[in-house]
# Entry
Amino acid sequence: MKTRVIQDEVEPADNGINRAAPIVAARETEIAAVRELVWEVLTGISEWPSWNPAVKSVSMQGSVSQGAQFRWQAGPGRITSTLEHVEPPRRVAWSGKALGLKAMHLYVLESRNGTTLVRTEESYDGLVAHVFRARLQKTLEGALESGLRHLKIEAERRTTDLAAERRS
# Structure
């Protein structure tokens, strides 16, 4: 008989995700916008519902800083998240709990000659993650792809708007 230790309380390596979790996904995209603008869009947490249709609502008290909490609704559940690492304009990570899952999410932004490479990773742990592993793996992968797609659209839209303003 094989056994596996379930590590619900594992701390993330280097302020990232729980790589030992049963569900882990990563995606990346290049955005035609400078890193500071992408950072502004990504960390404008209260504004997420205006550009990301998966996010129905957000409430956040205070500024984007380590330890700050925000509550949001994406999909069927309300999520309470805590910012675990904030390194402007390079890296932001948060943890969240909802529906029997413990999630850890990381974004890393890398400047590339006027564009930004955005890498995102997320892990799900907890009993629900173990029981519904295959279904939740697909859901997470789709959510990361969708989130990056909408982040790209919004950051590139703002870049176009800024360029138009400068020409006016």
User: Anything to note?
Assistant: The CA atoms of residues 29 and 148 lie 7 Å apart. The radius of gyration is 17 Å. The first helix runs from residue 35 to 43.
